[in-house]
């Protein structure tokens, strides 16, 4: 039975820790999504997908990170996007991960990110840079300096599989992390037909299509074609891909 850390208690969390359940951290933004879509869209979709994963497997769903590296690519600050500097965000994520590592929750951590789909986008890079920095520090402190070069560790990688491999301790679940066959089936946009469909499926009533008339944003116009069925298909495909990544399947 999955748990949400915000509402759980020590006994349940210790069980999750001992059984090495996956830890899901939804990461999002407060970003302008035109007139018909809420600012928290990216975070809400990431949260909703985490909750769908939690219906399928035992895992720990963490409280979301609402404020992320949004950028002003969609609109300037006058449209009320809250942009967090990449380096500042990285440090924040680093401190969260460090607390998890110190608590013994240093395996099987997954960031769920639905903001931006390009390679090397700043938010995903910030998350993974924080993770890799911490992993190297952890290995130096717990295995020792020269851990990779020490002769006694020459079989270090061969002896590690799955979540015991340090490079699998923290990963991102994003569009581009999906298995190739799933990627080919998924669609993406910003506050358009597909994102609005996902949001409406996960949180009915959150998309206000009657407000589309208030904007001429080009990227929002096909939101009129959104549907709960499209959203269900996109979310179910995405969750299937995430589960395969979490389980180490291709």
Please explain how this structure is put together.
This protein has one domain: Creatininase (Rossmann fold), CATH 3.40.50. The mean pLDDT is 94. The protein is globular. The two termini are 25 Å apart. Strand 4, helix 4 (122-142) and strand 5 (170-173) form a beta-alpha-beta unit. The chain is an alpha/beta fold and 250 residues long. The chain is built from seven helices and five strands. The chain has a five-stranded parallel beta sheet, sandwiched between helices. Helix 2 (41-54) packs across helix 7.
Main structural class: alpha/beta
The CATH superfamily appears as: Creatininase
Query: What share of residues is helical?
Result: 25-40%
Per CATH, the architecture is 3-Layer(aba) Sandwich
**Are there runs of 5+ residues with pLDDT below 50, and where?**
none
CATH C-level: Alpha Beta
User: Averaging pLDDT over every residue, what do you get?
Assistant: 94
Computed Rg: 19 Å
Beta content comes to 5-15%
Walk across the major sheet and give the strand order. Answer: 1-3-2-4-5
Q: Spell out the helices and strands N to C.
A: EHEHEHEHEHHH
DSSP strand tally: 5
Largest sheet: 5 strands, parallel
When the domains are counted, the total is: 1
| N-end to C-end Cα span | 25 Å
Shape assignment: globular
CATH fold title: Rossmann fold
Q: Provide a count of the helices.
A: 7
